[in-house]
Amino acid sequence: MGYHVVDTDEVEPVPDRPCELRRIGVEGGLENFALNQFRAEPGEQVPLKYHYHTEQQEAFYVLSGTLFVETPDETFEVSAGDLFVADPESPHRAHNPDDASEAVDILAIGAPAVSGDAEAYDPDER
Hints:
The protein is mainly β. It has a single domain (8-125), classed as Jelly Rolls (Sandwich). Helices cover 3% and strands 39% of the residues. It is built from one helix and ten strands; from the N terminus they run βαβββββββββ. The chain has one helix at 24-27; strands at 20-22, 34-40, 51-53, 57-64, 66-70, 75-79, 83-86, 93-95, 104-111, 118-120. The strands form three sheets. It has a five-stranded antiparallel β-sheet with strand order 1-2-9-4-7. Strand 5 (66-70) and strand 6 (75-79) form a beta hairpin. The termini are far apart. GO terms for molecular function: metal ion binding.
């Protein structure tokens, strides 16, 4: 048996990201899915790039604020308490707009936990 308690405030943010990212699942020893905590101030993007995953299904659960997720067809507004899900091969870019009045706090869940799965997406090449 194995149990873990992670003080997420003690997890160091990942450097060189467009917003604050804490890989809390890694610290908790998760192996089957990824669990990350993000905090995006107004004007900050959540991922490094507009992207899609080849294998991973990704979900953003909004803890506070409003998350905007751009897709090729529309931009979704995801309020606190709501969940946005992107299936594999579904391009998306999550961000907090410049004119937002507050930060957005998010838990991002991805399964399966695979590295190197994110592919850049250029909406101008559609």
